[in-house]
């Protein structure tokens, strides 16, 4: 038996068949005929000098040799795919593929992207609005904007300003509810996503921040923050809005944030990318623009009292 590696096509055929435990499904994945795939695996077995599969009546199963080879073959092809994807991204000097959450995309990014395009007409931005967990080394993504407590080990991570929440409502609704105490009688809106990323920033915490002991039990619940904000814009009730997600509606008068008290969370937005990619021109350009845009509106909240949620405790 030779120590020389067998042909890559034969190993790829084996890897697909071992994953699917089916020659037919493996052939379909590789866009070859089952006969061609079977030939590749047979040539691999001849190269090795022993069978890798037991051919049963309507199925196949791995032999002991096949079970030994399968994990290494899978890992090898994953490594190759990762390296190939990274090499392709390196070539795309004029393209930036970015992912950000749907709420940030709709409420903050999309209304501002014309400015980035004006400043960088040579960069083609491809934006995916998704909360999917990504692997920047494997997935076809250059950078991501994520919200939460940092868990960005082995990545280049740049944190934005601390985030916070404050009550928001339409100007018409504010005419009826002009004090924090009056919110006891207001229709409240709950953004349930806050419990996942910022559990200390809820209605009871905000009421404690203004000196009230009140835990509202009823209201309208939404699973996404932009939906809760849209409901507030429609006059459904009073919502707790996060700073970057409410700024456009507040600045354009659809909403007001009248009470000037906010609860700050330890969670925040971060711009993340691979360490070796942080200085690529298109990534550096977007990162610098992103943080500059945040600073443009930071003054809007200068008269707010911002109270860290960890100082409020629990009831």
UniProtKB/TrEMBL annotation:
CDD domains: PBP2_GcdR_TrpI_HvrB_AmpR_like (cd08432). The keyword Transcription regulation applies. The keyword Zinc-finger does not apply. One of its GO terms (molecular function) is DNA-binding transcription factor activity. It holds the Pfam family HTH_1. Keywords: DNA-binding, Transcription, Transcription regulation. GO terms for biological process: DNA-templated transcription. InterPro entries: LysR-type_TF_proteobact-type (IPR058163), LysR_HTH_N (IPR000847), LysR_subst-bd (IPR005119), WH-like_DNA-bd_sf (IPR036388), WH_DNA-bd_sf (IPR036390). Residues 6-63 form the HTH lysR-type domain. Gene3D superfamilies: Periplasmic binding protein-like II, Winged helix-like DNA-binding domain superfamily/Winged helix DNA-binding domain. NCBIfam families: PRK11139.1. Belongs to the LysR transcriptional regulatory family. This is LysR family transcriptional regulator.
